[in-house]
């Protein structure tokens, strides 16, 4: 059994890898293609890890370049992008409550 991580960078990298393996890069052929679904999933996992809201995780990402670099983000997503991504991923069954225990993340 793996130990729970206390590192947000390690969590971001692991969720990004899982998301890239499990999800198509974009939700539609008409997507804007600014962020991949795996990147958004990883940001949402960080939101749960830090126990913050959508605006709070956006602020954390803008403050900490190492998190942005580990997610390969060229810019920080708007909070509404994260809200819509969470709704879309929940409909697809890629919800965070199911994913985080498998990654041994304390919620």
Compact description:
The protein contains 6 helices and no strands. The chain has helices spanning 8-22, 37-50, 54-63, 65-70, 79-92, 96-102.
Describe this entry's structure for a reader.
The protein is mainly α and 107 residues long. The chain has one domain (8-102). Helix content is 62%, strand content 0%. The protein has helices at 8-22, 37-50, 54-63, 65-70, 79-92, 96-102. The longest helix is centred in the first third of the chain and has 15 residues, at 8-22. The radius of gyration is 13 Å and the shape is globular. The two termini are 18 Å apart.
Give short descriptive properties of this protein.
107 residues; single chain; mainly alpha; 0% strand
Blueprint of the fold:
Blueprint (H helix, E strand, L loop, with lengths): L7 H15 L14 H14 L3 H10 L1 H6 L8 H14 L3 H7 L5
Helix pairs in contact: 1-2, 2-5, 3-5
Count of DSSP H/I helices? 6
Query: How many domain regions?
Result: 1
Structure classification: mainly alpha
What ranges have pLDDT less than 50 throughout 5 or more consecutive residues? none
Q: How would you state the average pLDDT, rounded?
A: 86
Beta-strand content: under 5%
Topology pattern, helix = H, strand = E = HHHHHH
Shape: globular
What gap, in angstroms, lies between the N and C termini?
18 Å
Total count of strands: 0
The main β sheet shows up as: none
Rg result: 13 Å
Helix content: 55-70%
């Amino acid at each position: 059994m793996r130990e729970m991580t206390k590192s947000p960078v390690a969590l971001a990298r692991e969720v990004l890898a899982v998301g890239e393996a499990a999800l198509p890069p974009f939700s539609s052929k008409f997507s804007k293609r600014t962020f991949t679904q795996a990147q958004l999933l990883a940001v949402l996992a960080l939101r749960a890890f830090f126990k913050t809201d959508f605006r709070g995780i956006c602020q954390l990402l803008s403050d900490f370049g190492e998190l942005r670099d580990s997610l390969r983000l060229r810019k920080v997503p708007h909070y509404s992008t994260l809200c819509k991504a969470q709704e879309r991923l929940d409909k697809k069954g890629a919800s965070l409550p199911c994913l985080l225990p498998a990654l041994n993340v304390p919620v």
